[in-house]
Structure formats: C-alpha cells, structure tokens
Design brief:
The protein is α+β, with helices and mostly antiparallel strands. The protein is built from 4 helices and 10 strands; from the N terminus they run βαβββαβββαββαβ. Strands 1, 2, 3, 4, 5 and 10 form a 6-stranded antiparallel β-sheet that branches. A hairpin with a 2-residue loop joins strand 6 and strand 7. The protein starts with a strand and ends with a strand.
Length: 162
C-alpha cells in the first residue's frame, strides 16, 4: 500500500444546477480508487474568469488523500467530468463541471496535459479562497504559502453560497 498524498482539486460549474453538480462531483471524487475525501470547502460564487461574458461560476476545493499517481488522479477526474456531460469546446467557456488538479503534495509535475501546481492557481482567487479554507497552511511549491499568494491578489466579488 502506498502512502497517501494530499491532493487539492478545484471544482467549478456555471451550467445547470451548479450547486448540486459540485456536491455530486465531490462525492464522485471521494469514490476514486485509493482515495479518501479529507474535507471540502464551502461553495463560492464568483464572476467568470477568462471569458467574462458568461454566467457566474460556483467553485469549491476538495482535499483528497490519494494513493493514485498524478496522471491516474487526473484520468479519474477527467472520467468524472465526462460522466457529468462535460464537453470541451471553448477554453475558459461555460461548463457543467470543471475539475482541476491544483496541488499534489509538494510535487512539481510537468507532463503533456498535466502541470502541477496548476499553472494559473496563483492568479485565481476563486481557487485560492476555498483552498485556504480547507488548509490554511497549504503551500504552493515554488511560490510559498497559499494564503500569502491570495493576500497579494486583488480579489473580485467572491461570496459563499453553500
């Protein structure tokens, strides 16, 4: 048995019943092989990032203890997205479910289709706010404490919704 790694997964949705979708997706993440949900943040509503002419997003972060390697965890996350009907059409466009591997222990991973820490994490208050909620001491490899990265950002409107 492998020693579990603490992995942080960002969740987002702005199509359909986003709140119900995120709750169900958190449950699906907890059922990945060799994976246990340690905790999940509250849900937060924020304006869209990237393409701003779309509905607000609901976001959260799940903290997992997983025995899966980064690629296997990502593959499981992509399978969950597909099960929820995710279609990849437009970068930063509307989506029923988006799952991002934000952090994987203290690892820095650069592989085709996989970069950890998430390459935009340090720019996204909508991901950092719930990340710091689930682990106030989280560290972003190469950048330092997540709470310090968050405090340096100009945060737009982010409100807890659940």
């Amino acid at each position: 048995m492998n020693t579990p790694i603490r992995a942080f997964v960002g969740l987002g949705s702005n199509l359909g019943d986003s709140i119900a979708t995120l709750h169900a997706a958190i449950d699906a993440l907890s059922r990945l092989p060799g994976t246990r949900l340690s905790r999940a943040s509250r849900l937060y509503r924020s304006p869209a990032w990237g393409h701003t002419d779309q509905a607000d997003f609901v976001n959260a972060v799940a903290l997992l203890d997983t025995e899966l390697a980064p690629r296997a965890l990502l593959d499981g996350m992509l399978a969950i997205e597909r099960a929820f009907g995710r279609e990849r059409r437009e970068r930063w466009g509307p989506r029923i479910l988006d799952l991002d591997l934000l952090l994987y222990g203290d690892s820095i991973v650069v592989q085709p289709g996989l970069q950890v820490p998430h390459p935009h994490l340090h720019e996204r208050a909508f991901a950092l706010v719930p990340l710091v909620e689930v682990d106030p001491d989280a560290v972003i490899p190469g950048l330092g404490p997540a709470r310090d990265v968050l405090s340096a950002l100009a945060c737009g409107p982010i409100e807890a919704v659940g």
